[in-house]
Every structure is written in structure tokens, then in C-alpha cells.
Amino acid sequence: MLKLIERLGPVDEDTASDTLTLPFELRIRGRLKAESDSGQPLGLFLDRGPVLRDGEGLKAENGEIVRICAAIEPVVTARVSTGLPLARLAYHLGNRHVQLALGEDAKGGWVRFPPDHVLEELAELLGATLEHHNATFDPEPGAYNQVGGGHSHSHSHSHDQDHDHAHEHHHAH
Q1: CA 54 to CA 35: how far, in whole Å?
Q2: For every residue of the chain, which 3-state class applies, written as one string?
Q3: Cα 119 to Cα 80, 114, 116, distances in angstroms
Q4: pLDDT score recorded for residue 142
Q5: Strands 65-70 and 18-22, bridge-based pairing
Q6: Which conformational region is residue 83 in: left (phi greater than 0), alpha (psi within -120 to 50 degrees), or beta?
Q7: Pick the residue with more confidence: 146 or 173?
């Protein structure tokens, strides 16, 4: 088994000797037994926390590099007018503490998330039209996880039911 032990950040396709295609739910794990796209047994032994991003390279103990590919999986893309309606949609969905991908294409701006009837209903209440389809899901990393941000910390939130709540976070800088 090839042991992948180091995150390299984005790498060119020709840098890697193999690829590993994973859905989002497996790209959030630091420990994983998997099989590369060419059939080679792999083990991930990485720091926990950061999501494996599409195009990210992982270095093995022997120096080989394996490139991560985001799998095509079921998603919901919510579209609404740009400007305040799109900002409002992103805010209210994000306030549910779910992972969201944001983007734009020839049709305008969109918010993407895994299928979830509660989120879909909320998006429709906010005027969005929904498209159920298969695509990669590579959500926003969050402001504190941006490359070169120089600031790193985590918050632990656990919410088992829907409710309004306020958060107070104190940071010493």
C-alpha cells in the first residue's frame, strides 16, 4: 500500500504518477484506505481538518505524488438574480452551517450543495430555481482557510436541530 503522508497544495497533472477520485464526503477525511484510479492500494495518513481539494497533490513516503480529483456526484444548483438576491440566498443557506460551493457561469451566479430537502425548500422560498444534476462538489474553504491567509483556527459547532442562535467568538490578535 502506498502511504500518502503530505499535502502539497495544487499540482499540475503531469507532476503526479497517479490520481485518486473521491466524492466530497471522503475528501473531508484525513485517514482513509482507498484505491487509486489506476487500481493501486492507497492509505491516507494526513492531518485532520482541511478538505482535500480538486487538483491537490499528496506526497507518498517514497516520494511519489498522487493528484486528488473531485468525483462527479449528485448536487443541487440554486440560481437566483445576482446582487442582493444571490447574497441573501448564500447567507441564509450558509447560516445553516452547511458546505456550499459558489460560482458563476454564462447563466449567472449560483450556490451549490448536496441534495437536502430542507435546503432546497429554503432556496425556493428565497426565489431560487433548482437544478438537480451530477457535478463536482468543491465547496468554499472558508475565510480562515484561504491560501496565504496567515490566520488559522477552528470552531466546533454541533447542532442537532434547527433553531436561531447567536455566536460570540473572541480572538486575541
Answers
A1: 17
A2: CEEEEEEEEECCHHHCCEEEEECHHHHCCCEEEEECCCCCEEEEECCCCCCCCCCEEEEECCCCEEEEEECEEEEEEEECCCCHHHHHHHHHHHCCCCCCEEEEECCEEEEEECCCHHHHHHHHHCCCEEEEEEEECCCCCCHHHCCCCCCCCCCCCCCCCCCCCCCCCCCCC
A3: 14, 9, 5
A4: 67
A5: parallel
A6: left
A7: 146
Name all contacts of 81-87 with Cβ < 8 Å and 24+ positions apart.
81/108, 81/127, 82/108, 82/109, 85/126, 85/127, 86/111
Q: Kindly tell me if the per-residue pLDDT of 44 is higher than 90.
A: yes
pLDDT in tens, 79-111: 999 999 999 999 999 999 889 999 999 998 999
Q: Give 23-31 contacts, CB < 8 A, sequence gap 24+.
A: 23/70, 23/71, 23/73, 23/137, 24/51, 24/70, 24/71, 24/73, 24/99, 24/114, 24/137, 24/138, 24/139, 27/51, 27/52, 27/53, 27/68, 27/70, 28/52
**pTM for this model (two decimals):** 0.74
What average pLDDT does this structure show over 41-61?
93
**Percent of the chain predicted with pLDDT > 90:** 71
